[in-house]
Write a structure and sequence with these properties.
This protein has about 250 residues and is mainly α. The longest helix has about 35 residues, at about 70-105. It has helices spanning about 1-10, 15-25, 25-45, 55-65, 70-105, 110-125, 135-150, 155-185, 190-195, 200-210, 215-225, 225-235, 240-245. It contains 13 helices and no strands.
């Protein structure tokens, strides 16, 4: 079953687009070095092959040559635009909003600031396109700044509070996302948001369905994107404490 999933992933045009876009100029650089390697081996009489590539280079070249490059490059463009929208567009707007909020909270009491940070952070965690990093940065900047201006807390104390608040927010957000999948998992909109029909999500599902906390499951819970991973756990009705435990590292 897992072998078929991996084969489907490899043959997916989206996977090929990720390889093509991710390695980019390194692909022709590899083949150039591979040709040089084959030439040196022939000059030193290490091989009788007349191929301009080494055996490994030839297999990789034939594999890429068999791809439908029009479809693959089209998906590379789509992925690049999505990356720009999420990492540049949404992320920049998030930083602008959080910077404004930071200045607006500068005069408030530390306890009120922590409460507002939790409310804003939890709201942003539940928005699929918003990454978690700006929330952590915002929490660290705002709470540590207010801690520095609060007697008996200081910058170090504020930073410690920010770390604890961010950690707790992360776990609560994962539990809430789990609840979305648990109670609303049959909604077509939720299924579209996490891409239940995509090979990537099906591969995550196959690993998360394993019993216990295997290294693969922990790796997905820790390194996987929050929204699809936690919502998928809810749809699969995984054990919630086990999911939280696997997310902690």
């Amino acid at each position: 079953k897992y072998t078929h999933i991996l084969v489907d992933i490899w043959h997916s045009d989206w996977t090929k687009a990720l390889i093509m876009g991710g390695f980019n100029v390194l692909i022709p650089a590899f083949f150039g070095l591979n040709m040089l390697n084959a030439y040196v081996r022939k000059r030193r009489n290490r091989t009788d092959s007349r191929d301009k590539f080494t055996p490994l280079g030839r297999r990789l070249f034939n594999e890429i040559a068999a791809w439908d490059l029009c479809k693959v490059m089209n998906r590379v463009c789509i992925l690049a635009e999505l990356f720009f929208m999420l990492q540049v567009g949404v992320s920049r707007l998030t930083y602008i909003f959080l910077s404004w909020l930071n200045s607006a909270l500068a005069s408030l009491d530390l306890g009120i600031v922590i409460l507002l940070v939790v409310l804003v952070g939890m709201t942003m965690f539940l928005l699929p396109p918003v990454p978690g990093v700006p929330v952590y940065v915002f929490s660290g900047i705002v709470i540590s700044a207010r801690g520095e201006g609060t007697d008996g807390v200081g910058y170090g104390g504020g930073l410690t509070i920010a770390l604890i608040v961010s950690f707790v927010m992360k776990l609560i957000a994962c539990a809430m996302q789990y609840g979305i999948g648990f109670f609303l998992g049959k909604s077509l909109k939720i299924q579209q948001l996490i891409g239940v029909d995509k090979v990537f999500t099906r591969a995550i599902e196959a690993v998360l369905n394993q019993r216990g906390l295997s290294p693969g499951k922990v790796a997905i819970l820790v390194g996987g994107p929050d929204w699809p991973t936690s919502v998928t756990c809810g749809i699969l009705k995984m054990n919630l404490p086990q999911m939280i435990l696997g997310t902690i590292p």
